[in-house]
Amino acid sequence: MNSAENNLDCNAKIDASCRVPLLALFGGAALWLVVGLMLAVLASLTFHAPEMFARCPFATYGHLAPAANDLLVYGFAIPAGLGVVLWIFARLSHAELVLPLVPVVAANLWHLGVFIGLATILGGGGSGFTWLEFPRVAAMLLGVSFVLIAISAVATFAQRQERELYPSHWFLLAALLWFPWIYSTANLFLVTTWPVRGVTQAVINWWFADNLVFVWLALVGVGVAFYFLPKIAGRPLHSRFYALFAFWTLILFGTWAGIPQGAPVPAWLPTTSALASLLLVIPLIAIAVIVFKTVWGANTVCKGGPFCYLRFGMTAFILSGLLLIVQACPQFSRVLEFTWFGAAQTQLQILGFFAIVVFGAIYEILPRLVDGGLPFPKFVRAQHWCFMLGTLLLVGSLAFAGVKQGQAGLDPAAALPGLRIATLGWTFFLLGSLLFAANIFVMTIRWKLSLVKIVIAYIKSPLETSEVKS
Amino acid sequence: MKNGFAVFFAVIVALGGSWLGFVVAPAIQLGKAKQAVILNSTDTWPQQRTGEATLGLQIYRANGCAACHTEQIRQDGVAAEVTLTSLGKSKPEDLKAFVRSLFILPELATLTNDLAATLKDWKGDLPATILTTSDKAVADAFADRLKAAGAKSETRVVAIGADLPRWGVRRSVAADYLYDFPVQLGSLRVGPDLADVGARLSDANWQLLHLYAPKLSVTNSAMPSFKFLFDVRKIGSTPSPDALNLPPGFAPAAGYQVVPKLEAKELVAYLLSLRADAPLYEAPFSPITSAKP
């Protein structure tokens, strides 16, 4: 009884230490998610009326689409993921966040970097490399902020009282190490005055894209799910050994995927990549077994809450991995390469899997961060429905468009019906993200008002009593 | 997993493997690539772009054209083709009957459906490709049998793939991108492939019109119009020599002309510089060999 009370007290202190950094990370992430999805909807409108933006250079598809994608990954996915990582590390270590001011500064630098990047892309200054469109200044800001947040996370990790590492630790620590590595490599080789020569640029770009969108998001998403699923289901993770196996196979095979089969490069590159992609089925099966055995038969009521998010997100991850494998099979890639099928897989990975898993985690964390809980608790369920419908409509229609386009010999017109349904999918995502933004912004404002009230109360409090006492 | 440092080290090795494999190794293998020599010639490939086209590459980048266009022509593999060049003394009907009598041969078992369909459509015109197979030996044996029946044929090895010859005469190879920065291969074909667009659509005027109003040439085009690369100006004493010749419905108001800005001209210069039309050792033109006279 006493120790349980102690524990609660301790958890409340940990949550309080995470409050400001997490609100800074999540708030910016919510803003960029809304802006990114708005740009995605606008970009998608091009397929309804191509002439729409003929007079404004910054609003053509070639500007909007990369800007939207970058905002989804750099604006939303990474800061939101990092916020959740900080909280998990503090909770797993039973320690308050170390250097809590560092992630606050870093979060603001990060969002500044994303803003500079967005402005540059829309102004026509994008670097021309997929997922690396941000200019050098923005890339440097992002890199520095990431390292700062990672330092705070690792310092908190070092405060842990048990030496034992949890499965989530492996995934999240690897993610903290891997992003600075791939991001600095890609930027130093590509977004520079002395780039590598010729088609090597494309190889490094593919390597980076796969390691960012598939591996990094998978490491964080799966790591987060492996922390929250057992917690919410009230059962231990099944099992530690499977999780270890999934982790090693994921980083061994996943990091080698991503070179397209028809690429004009020495043949060993696509061949190695295809083999690695096929082997990815091993971690996928392991993760599916872990999730299934942990969740199946749990007496947790879902009701559109975090548990629903996590289950849906993990299902989407397995599906996204399978789509990646399909694209790597030469037989299928002949039909599917250069079609919308690739975009379907990317969006399933970013929005269907990562965003939904992270939202599940955020909705588990947010009510504990600020007294009074969520301002609009009913929005959680509504957002779950928006995101689920969005995933089905967007990914389904893009994959359908891709297959149609491939079968029609890459005839662009064959994809148009699918692309028009995709606009609806984007709109559902936008609605869902607005619900999240409403929750987080109202919550932040309430918290700031409560701070102001405390200050006012302090100022107004009569001074006489203390004087009398002294 | 109690030893954090051992795990950390192992993770570095596992992740670093892909870094060595897909960053360092290609940089070593391709980083010092030199120009290739064009087949049956002493000329080198590719040529350095002109200044205007190099600037155009940056316009292509700035407008994110690679979001919708690829610059790579793929080849799925090779096939052997048997092409009839002469019937000798026999009539088309006789030859058809003869080929049909060959259907019982075990090596043709998987090809009979295609062969029957080809024969059904063939009206006796020459030269006619009647057999396509992935096995050169089968094609040679088939050609020998035709020879025995008095007909003459050629067996050729051809490159096959959905992109050939639709988007170019040969596949794209690493050498084609030697002078590109950034290399924008693209990953999605909302529009056509552009690796060989300079050879396929070599008219600069057509390219300008297409940028101004894509629906002029392709009625259901999903390409946005790039009108911001053009000026609409009042016609002065003499019309500008660069002014676009637009049909009614697309033309500006009377007394005005549409003149391409510098960016439009540079972009078109870049598009016209995109060519994959020199035969190289690793990517010769199709047919690759011809044999069996």
Explain what you see:
The complex is a heterodimer of chains A (470) and B (293). Chain A has helices spanning 2-45, 61-93, 101-122, 136-158, 167-189, 200-233, 240-254, 268-279, 281-295, 306-328, 330-336, 341-369, 378-407, 412-460, 464-469. Chain A has 470 residues and is mainly α. In chain A, helix 1 (2-45) packs across helix 14 (412-460). The longest helix of chain A has 49 residues, at 412-460. Chain A starts with a helix and ends with a helix. By secondary structure, chain B is an alpha+beta fold. Helices cover 33% and strands 14% of the residues of chain B. In chain B, the strands form three sheets. A four-stranded antiparallel sheet of chain B has the order 4-3-5-8. A two-stranded antiparallel ribbon of chain B has the order 1-2. In chain B, strands 6-7 form a two-stranded antiparallel sheet. In chain B, strand 1 (36-37) and strand 2 form a beta hairpin. In chain B, helix 7 (204-212) crosses helix 8 (262-273). The longest helix of chain B is centred in the first third of the chain and has 28 residues, at 4-31. Chains A and B meet through helix 2, helix 5, helix 6, helix 7 and helix 14 of A and helix 1 of B.
The rounded Rg of chain B comes to 27 Å
What portion of residues of chain B belong to β-strands? 5-15%
Largest interface, counted by CB within 8 Å of the partner chain's CB:
A-B, 79 and 70 residues
Shape of chain A: globular
| Strand count of chain B | 8
